[in-house]
Write a structure and sequence with these properties.
Layout (H helix, E strand, L loop, with lengths): L1 H27 L6 E3 L17 E4 L35 E5 L10 E4 L4 E6 L4 E6 L4 E2 L3 E2 L6 E4 L3 E5 L4 E6 L5 E6 L8 E3 L8 E4 L5 E6 L4 E3 L13 E4 L5 E8 L5 E10 L2 E7 L3 E4 L5 E3 L25 E5 L13 E14 L30 H6 L22 E14 L13 E2 L22 E4 L4 E5 L5 E6 L6
Antiparallel strand pairs: 1-2, 2-20, 3-29, 4-5, 5-6, 6-7, 6-8, 9-10, 10-11, 11-12, 13-14, 14-15, 15-16, 17-18, 18-19, 19-20, 21-22, 23-24, 24-25, 25-26, 27-28, 28-29
Length: 488
């Protein structure tokens, strides 16, 4: 009876949870939906948008609005002074930093301070640290939460979310912990992002596609009224443009190698606007365009940005990653782009050395070809008085050791890195050479040669610092390479 009662209670709780989730979904998804195609009564997007792109506008005003969800809001990024970046003083042209003293293996990673700081969270030890590219060193870590932590950084703020809807605010570059905050968000924080050249606002989404903007105050986070809506975006990955005026949202479909559902979330007429992008672009550039595994960047309307010279790509195996700092002109005209391309190289795979196999020892008092003698057990009284019989120890015979086999040469996917200037993706930038098959590339690719979902988080090109920073494939080393790049 007790088991039946417990089982009935469990089923009751499961049913109530399912009804609650269904009610939440229906309540936040009215029949008219939260998004609708633009029409002439509300204005239209640029007529230059490609047929493949589709722009939608949040249309809460199409039906009766909820009193706690105002229809309109303002997206006003908070500007500030961007810290200067200069080349660091390094002892060698190539420096490898072991991250063990700083926390071990990197988890979440992002860029702050307009590209000057690379902020890392070390989940095993619960440490937050920042690498200053202008100094070539870590600034000194602070203790925080262990495990999976969401991370976003701006011009002078770092925000983490360890679990649920809890936030912790740190200042840059000191990483001093300022305050903790929380908001009501069903399902907790799924992703968040903010412009690295701004002091907010912070965009937060939950696993159900709801988004909300948060102003970052001196002592607390404040929700921007009217920004909490369900615009219809992928929630797996959210990244902000450096100026904080647009958010790139995408999900990865592993059925087709590196195929993505990519959308751009912007604000227009004080409401959310969603634009569909077909290309596999996942990296917001400092010029406001989007880059990735596509031959040319695209703008926020889905239009291809013409480059001076380009080439065809193999999706998921060729990547174009922009410099992380701002330029005065689009990267199609000025600045640098890093190209990473999958190559195959031969590696020596050692064969296992055959180990000697021990032979079983013969039984005592037994000749080859004879049957073992039956064991005679003496009576108990004889066992007590009989002296112990010591049998000779027979060592097993060993086979002779086998000679080591020569290693097998196998093809293994690796990378070739090249740097290109002023939108010319065919010619190398001045004073640069190709980097191929380096040890730090191991672990960045799937066995098929396709880049992993976090592929672009391993490369940071900073022309002002004349530096290329590479996070190793196992995320335990930071490789610093000096570059002799001319200023454009």
């Amino acid at each position: 009876m007790l088991g039946v009662m417990l089982g009935s209670l469990v089923m009751l709780f499961v049913s109530l949870g399912g009804l609650g989730a269904t009610g939440y979904y229906l309540f936040t998804n009215p029949p008219n939906g939260d998004t609708a195609a633009l029409d002439s009564s509300r204005g239209t997007r640029s007529t230059q948008s490609s047929p493949a792109s589709k722009t939608t506008l949040n249309s809460d005003s199409a039906g009766p609005s909820l009193p706690w969800r105002p229809d309109k809001f303002d997206l006003r990024p908070v500007a500030g002074e961007v810290p200067a970046i200069r080349p660091p003083t390094l002892e060698a042209d190539l420096t490898t930093l072991d991250l063990t003293p700083y926390g071990g293996k990197v988890g979440a990673i992002t860029v702050g301070g307009g590209g000057r700081y690379i902020i890392m969270h070390f989940p095993e030890k619960g440490i937050l640290n920042a690498f200053d590219v202008a100094e070539g060193r870590f600034l000194g870590g602070v203790e925080t939460d262990k495990g999976d932590v969401k991370l976003a950084a701006g011009l002078s703020w770092v925000i983490t979310s360890p679990a649920g809807s809890t936030f912790r605010a740190f200042s840059l570059p000191t990483l001093q912990r300022r305050y903790d905050a929380s908001i009501e968000l069903f399902g907790g924080v799924g992703a968040m992002a903010m412009g690295n050249r701004t002091n907010g606002p912070l965009l937060v989404s939950n696993p159900f596609g709801d988004v909300v903007l948060l102003d970052i105050g001196v002592t607390d986070l404040k929700e921007i009224s009217g920004s909490r809506k369900k615009p219809g975006i992928p929630v797996s990955n959210v990244r902000a443009t450096p100026d904080g005026t647009a958010f790139l949202c995408y999900s990865v479909n592993f059925d087709v190698a590196q195929a993505r559902n990519v959308k751009v979330l912007t604000e227009s007429s004080r409401d959310w606007v969603v634009t569909n992008l077909d290309p596999a672009v996942t990296i917001p550039g400092p010029d406001g365009n989007f880059y990735g595994s596509w031959p040319s960047p695209v703008d926020r309307l889905g239009q291809t940005v013409a480059m001076k010279a380009t080439l065809s790509v193999n999706l998921g195996r060729t990547w174009f990653m922009p410099q992380i700092t701002r330029t005065e002109a689009p990267l199609s005209e000025q600045g640098y782009i890093l190209r990473a391309m999958t190559i195959m190289r031969y590696v020596n795979v050692p064969q296992p050395v055959p180990q000697p196999v021990p032979q079983p020892a013969p039984l005592p008092n037994m000749q080859p070809g004879t049957q073992p003698r039956p064991r005679v057990v003496p009576p108990p009284e004889a066992q007590e008085t009989a002296p112990p019989v010591t049998q000779p120890v027979v060592q097993p015979a060993l086979q002779p050791a086998q000679p080591a086999q020569p290693p097998i040469r196998q093809l293994k996917p690796s990378l070739q890195l090249t740097i290109h200037a002023a939108g010319n993706l065919l010619m190398l930038a001045p004073n640069t050479t190709a980097l191929s098959g380096l040890p730090e590339f191991d672990g960045m690719l799937e066995p098929t040669g396709v880049g992993r979902a976090d592929f672009d988080q391993h490369f940071y090109l900073i022309p002002e610092a004349k530096l290329l920073v590479i996070l190793s494939g196992d995320r335990t080393k930071l490789v610093l390479r000096k570059l002799n790049l001319p200023q454009q």
